[in-house]
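Notes from hallway chat w/ T.B., transcribed later so I don't forget. T.B. wanted the structure written out for a chain they're using in a teaching module, and asked if we could keep both sequence and structure tokens in one place. Agreed to drop them here.
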Amino acid sequence: MTYLKTTPTRDGFFGSYGGAMLPPPLEPHFAEIREAYDRISKSADFIRELRYIRTHFQGRPTPVSYLRNLSELCGGAQIYAKREDLNHTGAHKLNHCMGEGLLARFMGKTKLMAETGAGQHGVALATAAAYFGMECEIHMGEIDIAKEAPNVTRMKLLGAEVVPVGFGGRSLKEAVDSCFESYIAQADHALFAIGSVVGPHPFPMMVRDFQHVVGVEARAQFLDMTGELPDMVAACVGGGSNAMGIFSGFLEDDVALYGVEPAGTSSNLGDHAASIAFGEDGDIHGFRTIVLKDANGEPAPVHTVASGLDYPGVGPEHAHLHRTGRVTYTTADDKEALNAFFELSRREGIIPALESAHAVAFAMREARANPGKSILVNMSGRGDKDIDYVTETFGFGEAL
């Protein structure tokens, strides 16, 4: 694909977004990461081992499922799901974590570090660390630790040190801040395995490349199932790694792509995490993108029922695809996502992650308006991590 081979530029820009704005102590370490990835990403040995891991450890390819009952409920378009919830550890995150683990081993690193929101990236990285025999340190906001207790337990069982982050909003942004600070002192022997298509170059490109397998599989599977490509492809967007994974398989096709941001409880600042819908150009965590800002121009507080989407910015490639018009970005609010969570569980026997439920909510809404069309949703993760929080906070959907 021409686009993937030419974007981003050598210095990490997707149009006017991206780059690497780093404090001087981190510049040589990120340069080392860029050089190492350039060397091994086209290496036959690296590709062979990554493919072996995907098949014999992760259980790939994950299937595409036709959601017949949900389609009948909604009327109109037929809804399908790319089942990343069936990837080992229960989400798409392991796709890039195993790649980052291989990269760390090639670089001679002995430790993997990361931030996490919903905990899925933390679980995936702890899994990769165990597989490669490395130490693991995960930073997680105190609010998310309380909401996503099952994933905290899984990280600890896998041998990771979970560092609670109690300052600021006590969620994903602060977890990134905390992990960067800790990484500076350990960069000689550790790799900061950033958990989405965010951060300084090369991570937005590198994580997209590792997630590209989702789009490659989904495109071939949908063609095999139906004889044609889907009319629409949708994925939730926080940082946006699952979305870039599936979008990357269809960017050069005549397929409408939709990124679904979390609209939270209202359009008021602090009540949502819809960066593209309500943000403006700015810098965050070493890269340029679209950012939600407060009155002082600083990253704003955010809210969403889905911990993995509570970030006041978006991956720079998403900002670029929004500006060019190739991808349409829309929103689903907390109530819509919760309704989709319960409906998919009861109608299809699939309990989705609250993050994925935002994309399901979009598909349910759009299906009614698009009879005769097909919608492919990226089911980015399973909802095991969310069931305690959802049922304790919202019951079993009676009040929705």
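Follow-up for T.B.: Residues 203-226 form the longest helix (24 residues). Might be a good example for the class.
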